[in-house]
Automatic annotation (TrEMBL):
Name the record gives this protein: Nucleoside recognition domain protein
Keywords: Membrane, Transmembrane, Transmembrane helix
Membrane-spanning parts: 18-41, 125-145, 184-206, 226-250, 259-277, 297-317
InterPro entries attached to this UniProt entry: Gate_dom, MJ0871-like
Domain Nucleoside transporter/FeoB GTPase Gate: 23-122
Keyword Transmembrane recorded: yes
Amino acid sequence: MIDIYQFIIDTLVLSLDLILASVPMMAVGVFIAELIISFNITDKLSRFSRPITDYANLHPDCGISFMMAFVSPKAANAMLVKYEREGILSHKEMILAALMNSFPNIVMHWRYLLPVYIPLLGLTGLAYFLILTLVGFIKTFILVVSGRFLLKPRDYEICYVEENVKLSLGQHAKKALNSSVEPLVHILKISIPVLVLVAALINTGVFDIIADNIQSLGSYFPIPPAGFAIIAAQFGSFIAGASVASGLMISGTLTSEEIIITLIAGNILTSVTRGIRFYGSSYAAIFGPKTGAEIQILSIILRNVIMVIVFGILIVLW
């Protein structure tokens, strides 16, 4: 029987952890968006990504969010929410731009992945990381081309008013801070209840049940029997998966090719549970439950379709 008081305490503590991990970066994203507007440098920043946004029929400000995603995906997505609320982006543009923002996030994962994969798996780990990066690039390319056909071309004018009085850095920051309050309050009204709900679901073991059911699907992938130990470990963490893979490779149980194949299969299977956990603290908290779910589902489906194709090609080649 569940101790209701302990459950409430655990949920509140976990909720606080999720809020502290998510809300500050959302606030940073909104503030940076307002600071960019205050300095009137939108045109200068967007010119670097303008070829991509122009081809995809996206507003140039989506390019600013894309660049910001290399630093903080949550801050970048918070910028998109602000742009939609102000009428700068349509709902369809925001969703497409949010899906594209996942590529910088994948690329910047080298900070966490390479220090684990290279020491444990050497060139095999590097090859696996490059495959993940390639999948992210293909996904982004598909999204850019999709925007070309799904969005109507529009002439965007980046207009801004030259101020007669030059503001200091502090004055610009104060102006941006004041302008950030309204959109941030709107985001927090959605994000905080969602994060509390996610914490409650985690503590009730819902995500663990889902993981157990999905893990059984591994038998449908043509991988060596020893590889299932890697997949089981991947449901815990990518570090655990890499550690098990390292032991199997060193012992000669699995070849480098079999390790990569197995890691890809595990990545596909764990994407659902990984996405569910990430959904609450990122997409739902920023975009709201409905739009957040739409973005998360589309992202997982598109990425997994590409991953399955890559998996099939490697099976044939190897």
